[in-house]
Write a structure and sequence with these properties.
By secondary structure, the protein is of the alpha/beta class. It has nine helices and eight strands. It is globular, with a radius of gyration of 20 Å. The chain starts with a helix and ends with a helix.
Length: 295
């Protein structure tokens, strides 16, 4: 009997501690300043949660964690992840991709159904997960994939020949993001990572395929189209380059503090492990320095 009482007492204590921590974070979140001055409280709370992560460790993430894995694909009838199969828990961060949504397709470029994706995002959020979204839009000029480096940015900017077409694409993205709601109708906050690896040359928005000036305009126009035209206020905007050799290279395409909430970086294990570790350490040191400077 005492053991049972102790068990319930422990549950109550842990539950009370969780509630008090969440209450404290919510209180702190109200004063958080984000790039989007009209950001939902959910976005501010997510930012506060992310800032608090280093106090207890780090957050491990996985792209498409619950959409497919080794030898399986989610068709809407299961909920699993390879991470859970290995360690007994789902990841803390869930990555999703919106490429081909701009074209009106039902599935993204990784064959994940968008309706299913919406459900998986809701489930992950309900479980306390952090949601990140990337977007590989097709090249609007050639109609080939995002990896077609043919120049296109100048044509989709305001006043450009393809500006109306591109804004129609952005409208579809905005619609999906705004549809991410909890059962009670509250917005689900998302870390949005558009136009990534811009210092590389493999995307149509990358270095050599557009000027830093045009890239910054593309970022700012996207931000303003979402926030001002479509009232999308549940995003944290993440600027994420490929590996860099200097602070100058990292900031060459940077659109400005008023348009960015989080600094990020993509680092793939391309060559030897020792080289990867060296690049990783150097770049994380740079990110840490810039992050503290820009808060």
């Amino acid at each position: 009997m005492l053991r049972v009482l102790y068990k319930y007492a422990l549950i109550i204590v842990l539950g009370t501690t969780f509630i008090s921590c969440k209450t404290a974070l919510l209180k702190q979140a109200k004063s958080i300043e984000l790039a989007d001055k009209q950001a939902d409280i959910s976005s501010r709370y997510l930012m506060q949660r992310i800032r608090a992560i280093p106090n207890s460790g780090y957050a491990f993430g996985h792209q498409d964690a619950t959409a497919y894995g080794m030898g399986w694909k989610n068709e809407g009838d299961i909920y699993k992840s390879d991470v859970h199969e290995v360690v007994g828990d789902h990841p803390a961060i869930y990555g999703f991709e919106l490429g081909h949504l701009e074209l009106g397709h039902s599935h993204n470029l990784d064959t994940v159904n968008f309706d299913l994706m919406r459900k998986l995002i809701k489930k992950a959020h309900n479980d306390g997960g952090i949601i990140t979204i990337s977007w590989h839009p097709d090249n609007p000029v050639t109609k080939k994939s995002a990896w077609d480096p043919s120049p296109a940015v100048s044509q989709v900017l305001e006043g450009g020949l393809l500006s109306p077409k591109y804004r129609a694409w952005l409208t579809r993205i905005a619609g999906f993001i705004k549809s991410l709601k909890t059962k009670s109708g509250k917005s689900i906050p998302v870390v949005f990572r558009p136009y990534h690896e811009m210092n590389g040359s493999w995307f149509w928005w990358g270095q050599g395929n557009c000027t830093p000036k045009d890239f910054k305009l593309l970022w700012r126009e996207t931000f303003e189209f979402f926030t001002n035209t479509h009232n999308v206020h549940n995003l944290l905007y993440c600027y994420s380059s490929d590996a860099v050799k200097s602070e100058k290279e990292y900031l060459d395409f940077y659109p400005g503090d008023d348009y960015v909430d989080i600094l990020g970086m993509d680092l793939y294990h391309k060559n030897g492990t020792s080289e990867y570790i060296e690049i990783l350490n150097t770049n994380l040191d740079l990110l840490g320095k810039l992050g503290k400077q820009k808060k």
